[in-house]
Amino acid sequence: MAKVSVIIGSDSDLEMIQPCLDQLSELKIDYELRILSAHRSPEQLRKYIKAVEKKGVKVIIAGAGLSAHLPGVISSLTLLPVIGVPLSGLTGGLDALLSMVQMPGGVPVATMAVGKPGAKNSAILAGRILALNDAELKKRLKKMVMKMEQEVISKDKRIQAQLRKEK
Looking at domain 4-133, which CATH architecture does it have? Predict the structure, then answer.
């Protein structure tokens, strides 16, 4: 059963949202991926959001570019946490970012960074939300953080050794 629903507005967004899907898989979080548009298929989006609540999904990640209404519309239709990922477009994603962070009071969207880093972080944030009630997932998240720390330490050791050789 999917715990996270990842929704994008177009198949052209798939490459940009891929780091999210990869991170969810790495954390062993079940997800489903849908292409639904706030502008081109609003009724299908509404039906899906109502159904997804009944299916046991706990977090929704919505990636959108341009006017990027998708995360806000989803948030207006559900009480589930909605994480917005602004995707790069004609203005480098600034238009999408501003559309997501300037939501009216009462319609929250947790907005990530623009593009692939934001896509990856959306999966990690979803994992942290789910880990509030999942001790095993919390362990996997801690392991991921420790791995990142070790990678930085290893890189630092390499550069320090290289600098010592140059002196």
Answer: 3-Layer(aba) Sandwich (3.40)
Write down the domain spans for the chain.
4-133, 137-167
Residue 112 backbone zone (phi > 0: left; psi -120 to 50: alpha; other: beta): beta
Q: Are 96 and 87 in contact (CB under 8 A)?
A: yes
Percentage of residues of the chain with pLDDT beyond 70: 100
Two tokens at 6? 């990842």
Are 68 and 46 within 8 A, CB to CB?
A: no
CA distance 108 to 84: 10
**pLDDT, tens digit, for every residue of 88-114?**
777 788 888 988 899 989 999 999 999
Token readout for 114 is 């623009």
For 88-116, letters b (16+ CB in 10 Å) and e give bbeeebebbbebbeebeeeeebbbbebbb
pLDDT at 99: 87
Continuous H helices in 27-92: 42-55, 70-77
- Model confidence at 126: pLDDT above 90: yes
Query: For 53-75, what is each residue's pLDDT tens digit?
Result: 899 999 999 999 877 899 999 99
| Residue reference for tokens 């477009």 | 89
